[in-house]
């Protein structure tokens, strides 16, 4: 059994349904692209664009950002990284507006994120003097950071009767929804499984009893949201805009130390009932 990925928590809501009851909603530092994503989704609601099309657009935005990085156009790269974050929010918003949930889109989104994260860091390695070993450590750190955020967020949502379409554990491909092929869902699930299972298992073994805790307070979730993908990409964009790209890979290595802090806080302050 293992956790659902970071991106899966945003793709399966009914129209107008909040992720959390109002009294548990917190300041999510990684979700700055939501307003722009919602606006884009509204413009596309009555078009033939699907959430998968929007996911494909954010892949292109990420690839353009990487191309700009490799050619020294760092400020333009920063803009496309931010655009990627906004489009990353727009696909889930469009799915909700059109009421067209899709497991294929859900896994496609997650797979695209992890591959782009690797490519972003590979580009930072190429344009700096960093070691490839440090780059790989930073990539592992980024993915584990995102898993920490996702783990606690999904637990909270399940604990307070928020959106429950995301499961804390997934151990088999889900049944295809209307309009999608079971074969395609199975294929994307297997790819997702290979890419994410290591990070999910590590997080579960670090904090097996988290789901027995009382609902996590807002301050805790806001702190943990610093590990969200949007916040990570915002930092990358900021460093590029300031021409401080040499600090990105070392930062994410050191930043991973907060994993111990967040897990320790949960265990010491937010003990199980």
- Total of domains: 1
Count of alpha and pi helical runs: 10
Total strand segments: 0
User: What oligomeric assembly is this protein in?
Assistant: single chain
Average pLDDT value? 89
Structure overview:
By secondary structure, the protein is mainly alpha-helical. The protein has one domain: CDP-alcohol phosphotransferase transmembrane (TM) domain (Four Helix Bundle (Hemerythrin (Met), subunit A)). The chain is built from ten helices and no strands. The chain has helices at 34-44, 51-70, 74-98, 103-127, 132-159, 182-206, 218-224, 229-241, 248-255, 258-269. It is globular, with a radius of gyration of 18 Å. It starts with 33 loop residues before the first helix and ends with a helix. Mean pLDDT is 89; it is low at 5-17.
